Amino acid sequence: MPPDLRDDIGQRKPFTSLEQEAFLNLLRTQAELSDSFERMLRPHGVSGTQYNVLRILRGSGPDGLCRNEIRDRLLTRMPDVTRLLDRMEEAGLVSRTRSSEDRRQVGTHLTSSGRDLVDRLDEVVAEEHRQRLGHLTEKQLKTLVELLTHARQRL
Amino acid sequence: MPPDLRDDIGQRKPFTSLEQEAFLNLLRTQAELSDSFERMLRPHGVSGTQYNVLRILRGSGPDGLCRNEIRDRLLTRMPDVTRLLDRMEEAGLVSRTRSSEDRRQVGTHLTSSGRDLVDRLDEVVAEEHRQRLGHLTEKQLKTLVELLTHARQRL
DNA sequence: TGACATTAGGTGTTATCACACCTATAATTC
DNA sequence: GAATTATAGGTGTGATAACACCTAATGTCA
Q1: pLDDT score of B155
Q2: A-chain residues within 8 Å CB-CB of B13?
Q3: What secondary structure, in 3-state letters, does chain B show?
Q4: Do A148 and B2 touch (CB under 8 A)?
Q5: Protein CA at B141 to nucleotide C1' at C8, angstroms
Q6: Could you tell me the pTM of the whole model?
Q7: Is the CB of A73 under 7 A from strand C?
Q8: Which nucleotide shows the minimum CA-to-C1' distance to residue B38?
Q9: What is the tens place of the pLDDT at every residue in A56-83?
Q10: Residue B130 clears pLDDT 80, i.e. is over it
């Protein structure tokens, strides 16, 4: 029998509701998986959010995407994408070019170095996910995805 | 049919593995729920982590807990609990007293104001969870908790 | 076409996080 | 019981996140 969250965080009282228990379990599980993910990325010099940006840009055309498009596609809310991209530009992972049609827009796209990095990371990332979630069966993973998707339906 | 994560973040390619899809869904769902939770707490002047500390301290004796105990019970890793507690002390939510047996230890406990706050928040928090997760059935919530607990079993 | 709103991007500033390192007290061990 | 190790807490510092606000370019419409 796996230790449940209450044992884990040394809580004595029962949870006050099933909704609360689900929320706290979600927080805990995400925190542990993300911590591990960030530690895996660290030696490669990028944060989880930066890796997310690299993947987003790899999936888009050679002109790249504008800041707001990137912001909207990020998994987590990030109010200061400008300086996130500043840092990535400084690290040589992305570069920016102001559009000539709409001079307000600045397209951000991968440099070859950025593309190399994200390509190289594919394998490590896949291995990380196998390590962390590979013990769940296909059916369990599918159910988990379904339930998480369903959980997001309430604004 | 609820929109899946790929629609949500404008991703064109399919996920590379079921494990990855589960991980990304977990990140996304947690981010949305936490954002909402933080927004709910904001008018009350505490962050999610601070609220977590308030609950931890409410569940412990009148002597409170030492810093490391609090750190270990937090849902998310937090390397700088000292200054987190500094801020809460400054806000009048907790107070600290150095132990006389072991002069290294400092017990942190709720002030009456801190206790009032966490008690008052019970209702709002319960309502928030109902709002956000109340559309899941009891069976779904239980399954979700089980799967999240299981997902945490791999170190 | 000129005023106004909207949109894209950026900046200033403060709070918070994160890491490495430091100090004081207690426990251990020779 | 002196030296050493372990433990509890704290500090210094740079990086990042968060919030409000600002500027420039484009759209809209009286």
Answers
A1: 61
A2: 59
A3: CCCCHHHHCCCCCCCCCHHHHHHHHHHHHHHHHHHHHHHHHHHHCCCHHHHHHHHHHHCCCCCCEEHHHHHHHCCCCCCCHHHHHHHHHHCCCEEEEECCCCCCCEEEEECHHHHHHHHHHHHHHHHHHHHHHCCCCHHHHHHHHHHHHHHCCCC
A4: no
A5: 42
A6: 0.93
A7: no
A8: D18
A9: 999 998 889 999 999 999 999 999 999 9
A10: yes
